[in-house]
Amino acid sequence: MPHEDLLITEQCGSLGNPIKYTRQGQNGISRREIAQETVADTLLQAVLGFFREVLLPHGYPDSVSEDYFDYQLWDTVQAFCSTITGIFTTHAILKGVGVGNVEASALSATITWIMKDGTGMVGRIMFAWWKGNSLDCNCKKWRLFADLLNDGAMILELCVPHVTHLTTEILCLSTAMKSVVGIAGGATRASITNHQAIKGNMAEISAKDGSQETLVNLVASFTGIFLINYFTDITAQWVVTFLLIILHLYSNYQAVTALIFKNLNDLRMTLVLKSYLIVNAVLGPERINKMESVLLGFGTDVEKFCGFKIILGRPLRKTLIYYNYDELRSLTEVYKNRKYLLVPDLKRRAIFVTFEKGETPQDVIAGYYNAVLLGLATCIYNRVNLDIYSKRQLHQSTPVTRLNTFMKTNHNSLDVPNNIPPHLLLTFNDFVDQETDMFFTALQVNGWKTDSHSLYLDEWRAQWRDFDKRSL
């Protein structure tokens, strides 16, 4: 092979064919695409390239998160199953409201349909008001819950032809359930799209997701028409629907567990801290996401290993009734150089973390970590035994062993549980500063994002600094 005077090579993404620019003749430039060797390979690559351009984000896979393919694959399977199941339920609903029945009243069917839609509209408004601010915090859980609820609604709709006297009630209930599905599913899909858009291409990823879903729904619709005509027996239809629902739930579970979020929510923060406090090691996003529960109501609770619930951005009115003026004044002095204020509530076993306006994600993460350390320190101070003490590595320097050493000579001399005194809190803050710096370093080294978070943070903010310099 003659020597090539190579000038430039370029490639569209990591899947496109490389192109070489070399010297040609005395002073010319030659452009040559390095394509597949056989005609069949070239044709296959052309077809795959076409579908890649139509259905996948530009620059795939470099323009999306590492979990994009796995999630979209299982999401495609669940959408396929859901569309076919929807055809069976639509058939059942139409039979239930009297389509094809000469004795059925058009007015009755119209009223039923209007009541069904009206219930769904009210349901969407109520659910968005009730749980809208927690959907980002528990994205995986609400995504899976939405699909569980959707399947439950479809099962109810399949029953409509068998209990025609309850058609209106069943359709109103199923539509209310589907309204929750619409809000929870749509909101969590937006959160997932934002996670996948690593190059700020959220709009394109959303558009291509719509194209993928449209294609899947089109194929599933024709498949559903074939199945509903092939399985005319009601028992066979129930069996097919049941199998589709099982596959739908399985694919949804696989989809949400394939996601690898790199920012911290309450559950991921708890799992990270549990490992870090005991063995001084922060587990990476992939391992923590595999450990994260995707079922609502399940998962590791921070209170189990630090002795306190951690509550961010909530009002302090019910907590401050246990403090007098001097105690509260001393507490604000302790945190006068911080953007967060920690207020322990021994009665409810909770530590309230309130922030100044304009807090950063780093402030929130630091405040949460400080609250966990304060909870552990308060338990040590009051001689409360926690499981995390027995699991600590005695011959290894960890946050728990360092905290035990710091609190070694500081214990409550009274029989009644009490807060750590202000003078000790001031020294404790110096200890916390060192620990927080090490924690943030460990997070960043292991691939966690600290410039964003999904911790549940309410909207209450406070001001406690520099009041002496103001005129009240």
From TrEMBL:
The keyword Transmembrane helix applies. Keywords: Membrane, Transmembrane, Transmembrane helix. The chain crosses the membrane at residues 215-232, 238-261. InterPro entries: RUS_fam, UVB_sens_C, UVB_sens_RUS_dom. Residues 45-277 form the Protein root UVB sensitive/RUS domain. Residues 282-464 form the Root UVB sensitive protein C-terminal domain. It is found in: Membrane. It comes from the Eukaryota. GO terms for cellular component: membrane. Signal peptide: none annotated. The keyword Transmembrane applies. Belongs to the RUS1 family. This is RUS family member 1. It comes from Tenebrio molitor.
